[in-house]
Amino acid sequence: MKVVTFTGTTPSEALKKAKLEYGDEAMLIETKQIKKKTLSEDGLYEIVVGIDEEMERKSEMKKQLSQPPQKPSRQLQKGTEEILYDISSAAKQISKISKVTKDPLAELYAKNAFESQKAPQPQTPVEPQELKEIKSEISKLTDKVKLIQNMFWSEKSPDLSQPIPPEFAEIYKLAAQSGMNKEHLDSIMKLTLEHMPMRMRESTTTIKRYFQTLLRKMVPIRLETLPTPGSTRVMMLVGPTGVGKTTTIAKLAARYSFLMQKRYKVGLIVLDTYRIGAVEQLMQYARMMKLGIETVVDPPEFTTALNSLSYCDFILIDTMGSSPYDKTKIEKIYECLASNDTQLSIDVSLVLPSSIKYEDLLAAYENFSTLNVDTVIFTKLDETRGFGNIFSFCLETQKPINYFSVGQEVPEDLVVASSDFLVECLLNGFDRSKI
Ligand SMILES: Nc1nc2c(ncn2[C@@H]2O[C@H](COP(=O)(O)OP(=O)(O)OP(=O)(O)O)[C@@H](O)[C@H]2O)c(=O)[nH]1
Ligand SMILES: [Mg+2]
Question: What is the distance, to the nearest Å, from the Cα of residue 221 to the centroid of all Cα atoms in its chain?
Fold first, then answer.
């Protein structure tokens, strides 16, 4: 890469000169102020641009790299190293410039403010428009660098007949790192490659947006259903031990009974035939929120408990956690459900932690499938980094998500599920400030 400098009275004037001579391909590397503008004289700016003389050679190399993997020749390796070196030094420059571009405005305003305190003077005529132009140049440049970097990345999977194009590499890597099932990822990528309009492929931002929209459409979500007057909505939470069933019940009870616009009457049932401690945990929440609570030890008591809470808008049923090897507990829950002699229909929500692998989520689901799971609640989103496992789980089972639990705090750490929220977590990580 050849480095050439241009000067001008403003950065954009210097940039215009560079573009006039070398076209849009000239890469802006650095902007320096050589001389400050004074009342009587113009300022002087110097910009450094990189002229990519080897653009043709790189595109030739890109073609070669997209062929089935071959051992690179020594010469090609040497060229690649040179280009990678150029990219990394360009990338360093970019980060330097992007920090600087924030400062000139601040510096400029600070300087103006300081000078205007000394004596009234005409404003320094550096246009924010020019800075906008520079910023847009930098973002184009960053995109170009990403693209060049990705030219050296090649991934070919059995489901894809061709390697993934470099401009799709960033999004593919992001999704793959999220823990998404590879088959799912490849078929989504295939769909994207086939259907994405050509004009949207120009920048990684539009590619990401398209991919995001596609993912959002794939996530099954159960919108929060509130009971109509006179009706009762019953939810039973089931799942492995320690996943957060009781905590989630407490959060839901608080949400329905005093956090929503309408205050619903909430009743609780603890279905725990084994552990007295677990009953006590929910009892405490019930006392704090002044909610009716019934304990069920055997199936015949289940109908009685439902009947005695039928005045409520919501009945929330907590169950004991079951390990994959303990089928009897799941059978006991099944017997209770089967013994329901009331008119009330019970929504079974499987509670699963987001911190376990996709395969383990599927195995847990299998265990509880005899209970005819209606929806899924994912907990411990605050304890995980990748969310592709949740996404793939829902895609595979087609079970809709209704809530996310994002921490231990009752009642605040609960989020009503939305595909926007999940896809945002998937591609950009969980951010508490976005709840
Ligand atoms: N970090 C984090 N911890 C959670 C979350 N939800 C629950 N917990 C914690 O997980 C632990 C177990 O929670 P419980 O609600 O007792 O779990 P459970 O599923 O009812 O457990 P069993 O009744 O024993 O099967 C507690 O320490 C909770 O505070 C969450 O979303 N994030
Ligand atoms: Mg519990």
Answer: 16
